[in-house]
Write a structure and sequence with these properties.
mainly beta, six-stranded mixed beta sheet, 1 helix, four-stranded antiparallel beta sheet
């Protein structure tokens, strides 16, 4: 019986081994800025040991536009950037997308990880 049940018990462990998590470091509410650029930041963590960290190309996506993120100083897993919010707009929705390579049999392969959707409220002063 255990020979039939054991593989089923191992499936969740295998699936959890490659899970990725995003931690949004951006304040949900920010005061209106005269230059209409707002800082965003994210921490990316993964258990995927085959991921090639040096190949990560992160962006923040607002609507149909994407904006590059840059890695923060001294932090391997954190990125930051700026998103424009037009005057008169008080709410935007955005998410993070990380493109990367990972090691696989036969050579590296590409993959992407997507964060949940987040909101940024712009407050009038």
């Amino acid at each position: 019986m255990w020979k039939k049940v054991l593989p089923l018990l191992l499936v969740p462990c295998l699936l959890a081994g490659c899970s990725s998590t995003f931690t949004n470091l951006t304040a949900q509410r920010q005061p209106r800025n005269p230059n209409h650029l707002y800082p965003v930041g994210v921490a990316f963590n993964t258990r995927q040991q085959s991921l090639r960290w040096e190949t990560i190309q992160p962006v923040v996506v607002v609507g149909t536009e994407s904006y590059p993120l840059r890695q923060t100083v001294l932090m391997k897993n954190r990125w930051e950037g700026l998103v424009p919010v037009p005057a008169g707009t008080n709410l935007i929705h955005y998410y993070y997308k990380f493109d990367f390579l990972y090691n696989d049999f036969g050579g590296p392969r590409s993959d992407s990880a997507f964060s949940p959707l987040y909101r940024l409220h712009i407050l009038e002063r």
